[in-house]
Amino acid sequence: MPDLPTLNNPEKIEIYRNSGLIISVSRQIDPAAVTLLKRTIYGTSGVRYQHTNQETKIRSLQNPLFFHLYRLGQLIGTYCLVERPLDIDSQLITAFYGRYLSIDENHVSNGYGRLMKEQAVAFVEQCTQPPILFYSYIEAKNTRSIAISRQQGFESIATLNTYFFRRFSPQKSPGLVVASAEELPEIRSLLNQFYQQHTFKTFDNIGYNQHYFVLKESGQIVAGVQANPICWRFHQIAGIRGWMFMNILPRFGLTRRFFNPTQNCFLVLEGIYFEEGRPNLLPVLLESVLAHFGQHSAMCEIDQSDPLVPVLISKAMGFLSGFEKDVATHVFIKAVGVSEQRLLTLKPLYTSCFDYT
Length: 357
Known about the structure:
Blueprint: E1 13-18, E2 21-26, H1 31-38, E3 42-43, E4 47-51, H2 54-59, E5 64-71, E6 74-88, E7 91-103, H3 112-127, E8 132-139, H4 143-151, E9 155-166, E10 176-178, H5 184-194, E11 212-217, E12 220-237, H6 239-247, H7 253-256, E13 264-274, H8 281-293, E14 297-303, H9 309-312, E15 322-336, H10 340-344, H11 353-356
Parallel strand pairs: 7-8, 13-14
Antiparallel strand pairs: 1-2, 2-5, 3-4, 4-12, 5-6, 6-7, 8-15, 9-14, 9-15, 10-11, 11-12, 12-13
């Protein structure tokens, strides 16, 4: 059985060669792949957008495996599997989260994306003792990627809905503070208890960039959230509503606070926590975090069966906040040595904003 590359061994391992095509794997990303990701446009024919600041985030990935596709010596594709222990029904299982699948625009529609994903999964299966779990998030409207995943034995086990919290003029509570490094073990303990009924728990990115915020009362943590600022650049939103978003809303200062297609900045959330019986703390916490960053919108993706859903749709969250209609994301998995039927019964799923942005 071959070994996975290690961080101490930066040399690439060739895993596929055929007719001028080579696929290699390494723990370090090829600089040409970073360039490719910077110009990659995501989304379907309905909504198309670009991420920004990819390089900083890529450098922060823990235990990544970068797969690179070369044609005649030139990089034309990349894919990443992030290795992590995942809490599945109180059992830690080696999991690989798939992200950053990108093919150069001059080489799309040649089946290269399917080839990369197929070879990456097959390589990891050869190198890792089961049980293993592969998983990724795919937008429901991205029918092409869904078809590729199903052909490779992946199955959807949950649907995530997209929620936005918004405020015109957010105000900061005096009780909001940035969690210290010394407080993170306590916070992870609180989160483990808060999400005890959830599966797919991973708190690796809690405290990322010192962006876990807490509300305190008498020195005690009563609520908290990880909030990461990001910016996306939108290229297209289909339909009349999309045309208005792209062309009309940005002209007015009030609406531009919530959407600016050239630089749409907002917060993404995970690790939401509040004391038992005190959901009223959540809007105070989120509004305070918006005020801290000078932003007006915050987003999270949440399992539609999550018990937090009724809290998020309560009047206390404000009339500007709510779930985006017709925006859904599937969680696709491929299990090796784990019963998929068992996984289908485990709900709700914990989701990390670090993964889907």
